[in-house]
Write a structure and sequence with these properties.
alpha+beta; five-stranded mixed barrel; 8 strands; globular
């Protein structure tokens, strides 16, 4: 039991020491599109993996997962983009809005039915953009575009929950503890 507590404390110290002060706004070049909602860019912070805020694309193994990835690649691969990073997620990716030539990549993905408006990360968007994402999703759904052409598309967050491994469940548990500790030390713990 003592070893477990030591490991937990080491993990918390490492995790809290790696925190960055957000938001960051910077120019970068897209080096790699990982899937329908994650990219790797190179900019003033070096090579950074980003999670595009406000949308959640189907996982690669889901129906339309590959199509969503291909669409994001066609839109961003090799392009110069403006990035606004507001937080880091549990996997160390920076939750960010990404625009190319003034066009919001996340919004385009939702408008074309290649992603859902992801309520979990809508807070990361500017207030005026949140409604646009929800409206774009509703329009894509009504028009039967992209994933909405499927009979009953499964949201990626539900698909991930059904396919979580034991290790992922353990990591989720510790992520929750880390979040609670951070809130406590910021004065939000009651």
């Amino acid at each position: 039991m003592g070893g477990f507590i030591v490991l937990l404390l080491l993990w918390l110290v490492r995790h809290l020491s790696r925190r960055r002060r957000f938001p960051f706004v910077f120019e970068a070049k897209v080096e790699h599109v990982c899937d329908g909602d994650s990219i790797i860019v190179r900019g003033r912070f070096g090579r950074v993996k980003l999670r595009i805020a406000g949308m959640d694309a189907p996982e690669t193994a889901q129906p339309r997962g590959r199509e969503s990835e291909r669409r994001l690649r066609a839109m961003l691969q090799g392009r110069s983009v403006k990035v606004r990073s507001v937080a880091a997620d549990r996997y160390g990716r920076w939750v960010s809005t990404v625009t190319a030539d003034g066009v919001d990549a996340g919004l385009v993905m939702v408008e074309e039915g290649e992603a859902w408006a992801y309520r979990t990360y809508l807070w990361a968007l500017p207030k005026e953009a949140r409604g646009r994402y929800l409206a774009a999703e509703a329009r894509a759904m009504r028009a039967g575009r992209g994933l909405w052409a499927e009979r009953s598309p499964e949201a990626p967050w539900l698909w991930r929950r059904r396919h979580r491994t034991i290790l992922q469940r353990i990591l989720d548990f510790f992520w929750g503890i880390g979040r609670a500790v951070r809130r406590f030390f910021r004065g939000g713990g009651k």
